Amino acid sequence: MASDDTKSVRLSFDDNDILLLLCGQHNVNLAKIEKTLDVSIDSFGNELRIKGDAEQTKTAGDVIQRLFKQLATDPDPKSTASGPLIDDILRLVEYGHDLTKSPVQEQVFAATWRKKIFARTKGQSEYFNLMRKNEVVFGLGPAGTGKTYMAVAMAVDHLKAKKVEKLILSRPAVEAGERLGFLPGDMKEKVDPYLRPLYDALYDMMPADKVERMIANGEIEIAPLAFMRGRTLSNAFVIIDEAQNTTSIQMKMVLTRLGQDSRMVITGDLSQVDLPSNQLSGLADATARLRDIEGVGIYRLTGEDVVRHPIVARILKAYDSD
């Protein structure tokens, strides 16, 4: 790296193919860095010149070097470059992380039929590790942190590796009241809209025909929470999603369903409870009661772990400021 002056930095790269991927189609990645860090970036052959405030210029240089390094060592850089990598790196900048040290443990991932699901934030790495070590895990956090998606990834990983015989995916339906009788159609048609996020995650990780076949033969079961009562869930990976909308009685019921050789992940966002204001969320109650129980892990993802569109993190910040 050579510095022209305090507000100009020139970077040279030894691989033009990787540099093209870094810049993005029509320099879209460079434009995103320019907008986020308020700098200007010009390209000249195998060089990039960054101009702007001295501190922002240095940060932009660190972002570009980190991006180049990750693409250069990636087995499929084209796919990575077209994904959310640049947003992930810029998010690290926003939260003050040192870009020379990755907060993400790159060996932490879940293997599914379609792809490997890697942790994209430090929080997600720790959440993944907690799911591997504990029989029961509570994953709490705001929208967009990947708490449900990663739980499904870990469940599919266990099913693929034959560590369990079936997946059971459930959530409270219709604002925790489960008033399904008022909806048209048979039970599947009543329930499906409320379980759509779980279906979406499965189809992202498994071929559609495999998902449908496994649902048909019972290896994957998707049902409302009320269907758990009276059962013993053995040799299964169980996910309870949107658990902030369970009552304390419902939460106790579902936790005591866990049978031999099974694991359970309970996810929810305590800032979005739909229960009546005088009723305690079963998720809040359970995490308070069980925080010191052996075999139970509790992890709270934060705005730093939001992996949706970057604006989601900014929206959450605005709401949290109250």
Explain how this protein is built.
The protein is α/β, with parallel strands linked by helices and 322 residues long. It has 12 helices and 12 strands. The protein has helices at 16-23, 28-37, 54-72, 77-81, 85-94, 122-133, 147-160, 187-205, 208-216, 248-255, 282-289, 310-320; strands at 2-5, 8-12, 39-44, 47-52, 109-111, 116-118, 136-140, 166-171, 220-224, 236-240, 263-268, 296-300. The strands form 3 sheets. A 6-stranded parallel beta sheet has the order 9-8-10-11-7-12. It has a 4-stranded antiparallel beta sheet with strand order 1-2-4-3, with helices on one face. Strands 5-6 form a two-stranded antiparallel ribbon. Helix 3 (54-72) packs antiparallel against helix 5 (85-94).
Give a quick set of tags describing it.
about 325 residues, four-stranded antiparallel beta sheet, about 40% helix, alpha/beta
